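Today's session is about reading a structure prediction critically. Students often jump straight to the picture, but the first step is always the sequence itself: look for stretches that repeat, for charged clusters, for runs of hydrophobic residues. Only then move on to the predicted structure, which in these notes is written as discrete structure tokens rather than atom positions. Here is the chain we will use throughout the hour.
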Amino acid sequence: MLLTIDVGNTNTVIGLYNNENLIQSWRIKTDAHSTADELILTFRGLLNGQPEVSGISLCSTVPSVLKEIRWMLERYFTDIKTVIIEPGTKTGVPIITDNPKEVGADRIANSLAVFERHGGPSVVVDFGTSTNFDVVSERGEFLGGALAPGIEISLEALAGKAAQLRKVEFIKPKSVVGKNTVEALQSGALYGFAGQVDGILERIVAEIGPLKAVVATGGLASLVVEESKFITHHEPDLTLEGLRLVFEKNK
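Below is the predicted structure for this chain, in token form.
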């Protein structure tokens, strides 16, 4: 069994693969202050009763958590082959940017997975702490993209800065024209972010030409997918699939 771990700024997504099949996945809160001993308790709890892990593939955008995971792996998974996406790791994704080392490991995993599944040129829209647009060429190269404030932090910032507004559940309102403050906030968030996504994608198409696929992933993707004119696929486990593919390339 292959254990895949995607450590994001807000959530950590964990998947368990049997060959090419994702048989189980979990989403837990990322705590930048967790120690290696605390992390192993969490992983042991999740993996209790599951088949034995024979390989691990992971990426992290949180340096402090990655440091503790390294300690956890060295202490508790000594004999298990581990692949971490970082500079020098073989991924099969050429990075065509000014500074390849600053590209997030999750963006590389997403790029590999979308190219393997759909070819290129393609775009991944990852709805996480930030909304990432990852552009992949017809040859599978990571060309760059765009980064925008994420949905949750935008709603939190609005509630924190506006005295008469509050944080609301991110769901589809009854109508675009909200009849109360909650519905108005939900309308602005959902249709505002859908418009932002389509606006950026429209400009990407104008710059690089027609796309084979636009794939949405991330915890907050499901609602926006329904309102976007450009998104063609919703694949919640895309990053985990990328981690699986990177592990296969390094066996």
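Discussion point for the tutorial: The mean pLDDT is 93.
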